[in-house]
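Long-time lurker. I teach an intro course on protein structure, and each term I like to show students one example going from raw sequence to a predicted 3D structure in token notation. This year I'd like something fresh instead of my usual example. Would anyone be willing to generate the tokens for the chain below so I can use it in lecture? Attribution to the forum is fine with me.
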Amino acid sequence: MAPTLTEQMPILNFAVQTGFVLVMLGVILAMIRLIKGPSLPDRVVALDTMTVLIVAFCGLFALDTGSAAFLDVAVVLALIGFLATVALARFVERKVRRARPEDAIRVEEAPR
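-- Reply from a regular --
Happy to contribute to a lecture. Here you go:
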């Protein structure tokens, strides 16, 4: 079996291993914000950050092992993460819009 790119280049191996450590540190910090976040938008941003970091982890793992299958996983995960973020943002927007009393239409004020 041919050696991977990271086995051929020690500086790339160091950079990938450092990237793994930093990505996992970011996931841990985002998990803390997800659990502790005082508001729903904070939690949505933390979840989106975790999705991006997991996509970066898949990319680093593909680079480290030389397997292109993890790039497909990263692309699918990025698309699902984007759609989930858009859906959660719409949910938060509707929740805020419903909470304002001036947006509510009273029955006696409705046009006939």
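Some talking points for your students: The first helix runs from residue 5 to 8. The chain has a mean pLDDT of 87.
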